[in-house]
Amino acid sequence: MVRILTPKFHEPPIYNAYLHCELSQPVLDKVQKDWRLGAIDRSNDSRYNMPWSRLDIVDRKDLYGLSPQEIRTRLEQEAKADRDHDDDNGGEYLVNPFILIDAETESTRSVWYIDQWLDEEELEQAKRDSDEKVLWKSRNMTWDLPLSIVNYEIANMDITEDLENSNPQVFEGDDHLYNQHAPQQPQAIQTEDYFRNEAPQPAVVLADPGEWEETRNPDDMNVMPKPERMVRLKQDVAHEQGTMRSTRSPRAAVYCVWTGT
């Protein structure tokens, strides 16, 4: 008996996206479409697992026109009041990073990613007025931002590296001081086509003896480097399980790396 197992995942994180001004529904629909593209959100395709993240667009008119610093401060004050919780950070880290959708979003297909405040050590390398609080923030193509966030979450890279690569002008002068007010161009690590061509997540297939066949012929192998042995479901079994489109195609049931004993 063949069993095809797909890994179980936790629900993806949801990021709040606040409107900086009034925008039409078609613009917001496009933001969601671009986000789903970059987050590999293929809910209508059973070959794909959970998306990397989801976006919740929040329309709060009281936040219209406020600076990112003012918005984060207000959200932190609200979160602190709601939770009735006082911590050593004065409530600063009660709010996760969030997205800001502004008047430039429609024409640029980009949004702001608003991260955390700079800490005391980082502030020594920042340009600011007096005791001004400073935020890490970056302008991103909407479809590209979910991947950047994943990289931040797994510590594959951080927002500083992204800014140095895509918008080095935010670091000013010989001292390389970070200026949160410096203009930024939307950054994109990958093109739209990269996400459109993203392959489905692999499945785990368990098969009994007699339901699969093997090869040790390097010409049959579709990976590099080539292993000593690869296996695949027999064509009639693969067709029955819906893992191949046609029994007439000799490559319809592809070989997989052997992980058994």
Structural summary, described in words:
With 261 residues, the chain is of the alpha+beta class. It has helices at residues 25-38, 68-83, 105-108, 120-123, 145-153, 159-166, 192-196, 235-241, and strands at 3-5, 14-19, 54-58, 98-101, 110-117, 135-141, 171-172, 177-178, 204-206, 212-215, 230-233, 256-257. A five-stranded mixed sheet has the order 3-2-4-5-6. Strands 10-11-12 form a three-stranded antiparallel sheet. It has a two-stranded antiparallel ribbon with strand order 1-9. The relative contact order is 0.14.
Concise summary:
The chain is α+β, with helices and mostly antiparallel strands and 261 residues long. Helix content is 26%, strand content 19%.
What descriptors fit this protein?
261 residues, alpha+beta, 8 helices
Q: Care to count the β-strands?
A: 12
Q: Strand order, main sheet: write it out.
A: 3-2-4-5-6
Tell me the number of helical segments per DSSP (H or I, 4 or more residues long): 8
The class by helix and strand makeup works out as alpha+beta
Write the layout of secondary structure elements.
Elements: E1 3-5, E2 14-19, H1 25-38, E3 54-58, H2 68-83, E4 98-101, H3 105-108, E5 110-117, H4 120-123, E6 135-141, H5 145-153, H6 159-166, E7 171-172, E8 177-178, H7 192-196, E9 204-206, E10 212-215, E11 230-233, H8 235-241, E12 256-257
